[in-house]
Sequence to fold (312 residues):
Amino acid sequence: MFAPTKTWRKWTAKTNTNERRVAVTSALAASAVPALLMARGHRVGQLQEVPLVVADEIESISKTKDALALLKSVKAFEDVEHAKESKKVRRGKGKMRNRRYVQRKGPLVVYSNNNGVEQAFRNIPGVEVASVDRLNLLKLAPGGHLGRFIIWSKAAFEKLDSVFGTLTNKSDVKKFFALPRSIMTNSDLSRIINSNEVQSHKKLRAAKEGFAKPSRKRNPLKNLGTMLKLNPYIAQVRRAEAAAEAAAKAGKKRKLLAPVTTELRSRNKKAKHASNAKFKETLKATPETPATSFLDSYNKVVDTPFTLPKNE
Fold:
C-alpha cells in the first residue's frame, strides 16, 4: 500500500541488478560533466578539472582540520560552505519525525582503502564518504538528479576499471555485467545528414518541398463547422432552437408588460366612465328650453364651443 505510514507499507521497489548497475555507471559518467555539476547547484567554478582526482594520501587523513585544509587547497571548500549555509528547518510534519532540518549536498569523497578518511570527513556538513567497491546510487545522484561533485583518490579512480569493466574487458567483480555502449558514436544527426558522404549518395531521396500544415482536431460540440461535417441536420436544429429562444424571450417580455397594460386600460376605462357621468349630470342640471339644441348643451359643458361651419 502507498499512503499509510505502516510497517507493512511497500517502502522500496525492487529493481533489476543490472539496471541498478547501469544507473550507477550513468551517474558516474555525469559526474565528469561540469555543466551537469553546475546545473545541480555545486560550486565548481574555481576547480582546475572535473573529475577531481587527488593523491592517495587523502585516505590517510584522520583529522577534520586536515580534511578542511585539503578541501581549501583543491578549491572545493566553496561548495562545502554553500551546503553549510543552506541548512534550514523542514516544512511540514517531517519536523516531528527526527528529520527536522534539510540541507544541500556537498562533495562526495570516494576512497579505495579507509585509513582514517571516513573519520576525517564525516563531521563536515554536506560532505559524504563512500567506498569505490560500494558506491551508493542515492549518493551519486541524490533525489534522482545527476551531477554529484565527487573527489576521487587516485587508487579509487584507477579501480573503477576493475569494478565496472571497460568497453573491451568485463568487470572483475560484477558477474554478467558489461558497460552499456552508446548506440551512436556521433549523436549530431543534422551533421550526419548534411555531410558530403550522405548527400552524394545516388539513392538518396530528394527533399520534400512545401510544408504540410498539421490538422487540428476540433471539438464538434463547440465548433459548428466540425459538427456540420458530422451531422448536416444540426443547422435546422440550431435554427429551431434560436427561434424557440426568441419566442420565449418575447413571451417573457409580454408577460412582464401585461400588468402595466392592464393597469393603463383600467385607468382609461375609469376616466371614460367619470367623464360620461359628469356629462350626464351636467345635462340634468341644465334647464331645457325649446330653442336649446344639443350643440348648445355641449358648448356649456366643454370649454371650447363647437360651431357649425358657415355655408358660403
Q: What stands out?
A: The beta strands are 52-54, 88-89, 101-102, 108-111, 128-131, 150-153. The chain has a mean pLDDT of 86. The chain has two domains: 17-88+102-178, 224-301.
